[in-house]
Amino acid sequence: MKSKHSGTDLRLRKASLNDLSLLRHWDKQPHVIACDPNDDWQWETELVRDPYWREQLIAELDGRPIGFLQIIDPALEDSHYWGDVPANLRAIDIWIGEEADLGKGYGTAMMQAALERCFKKKAITGILIDPLESNLRAHRFYERLGFRFVKKRQFGDDLCKVYQLNREEWNRWNKIV
Ligand SMILES: CC(C)(COP(=O)(O)OP(=O)(O)OC[C@H]1O[C@@H](n2cnc3c(N)ncnc32)[C@H](O)[C@@H]1OP(=O)(O)O)[C@@H](O)C(=O)NCCC(=O)NCCS
């Protein structure tokens, strides 16, 4: 996909074990730790597992890996992290790896590519995200993309704000009628 970011090429590709050292390096960056301090993503295990309810994706900008995206079906995800949620939703996790790449519009391009990917499937009605309550910049980022605040919710040790973007709002946002 050509992003709106000054003619650059933003693509999402499947993450693999070849990305292990890069993902571990990104895990050590303070802005990545701050957005998700209590999770161990267990890359060695998860990068070789391919459950039908999940995609793990690397975003590449002009061929350079810049960030990670995970898209799950929250109703089918095997730890039931999201609890009882309706079918036909998706939940997304996103981060940019290097601090120098923040605030340049790359995250917006990544989310737009992820939202298109999710809503391409006609049955999908909405997308969930769960930034930490303290992650004010992420809240602004999601609100600008059209996400609406749903409720505060405790996930394990993390107090989060749940946001949702429904298909109708996404259509309006993208002027699709
Ligand atoms: C959230 C994130 C993906 C947004 O991507 P981005 O490329 O920085 O965002 P964009 O440049 O497209 O948009 C900039 C907006 O993102 C928001 N933003 C969120 N986190 C930011 C950060 N650490 N630095 C700069 N902007 C950030 C701001 O609202 C900013 O808008 P503003 O200029 O009005 O303040 C990215 O900042 C990031 O990876 N942050 C750390 C990890 C994280 O918080 N992930 C979300 C967990 S739910």
Characterise the protein shown here:
Helix content is 27%, strand content 29%. The chain is an alpha+beta fold. It has one domain: Gcn5-related N-acetyltransferase (GNAT) (Aminopeptidase), CATH 3.40.630. A seven-stranded mixed beta sheet has the order 1-2-3-4-5-7-6. Strand 4, helix 4 and strand 5 form a beta-alpha-beta unit. The longest helix has 14 residues, at 106-119. The model has no long low-confidence stretch (mean pLDDT 94). The protein binds coenzyme A (COA). Coenzyme A is lined by residues 31-32, 35, 94-96, 102-108, 129, 131, 135, 137-138, 140-141. This is Aminoglycoside 6'-N-acetyltransferase. Keywords: Antibiotic resistance, Transferase.
Task: Describe, in short, the structure shown.
By secondary structure, the chain is α+β, with helices and mostly antiparallel strands.
Percent of sequence in beta strands? 25-35%
- The radius of gyration over CA amounts to 15 Å
Overall strand count: 7
- Please state how the strands of the largest beta sheet are arranged side by side: 1-2-3-4-5-7-6
Which stretches are low in confidence, meaning pLDDT under 50 for 5 or more residues running? none
Q: What is the CATH class designation?
A: Alpha Beta
What binds here, in terms of ligands, is: coenzyme A
Q: Note the gap between the termini.
A: 22 Å
Name the CATH architecture. 3-Layer(aba) Sandwich
Order of H and E elements: EHHHEEEHEHEEH
Provide the CATH topology. Answer: Aminopeptidase
CATH superfamily: Gcn5-related N-acetyltransferase (GNAT)
The main β sheet shows up as: 7 strands, mixed
Shape: globular
Q: What is the total domain count? A: 1
Q: Please state the average pLDDT score.
A: 94
Helix and strand content put the structural class at alpha+beta
Query: How helix-rich are the residues, as a percent range?
Result: 25-40%
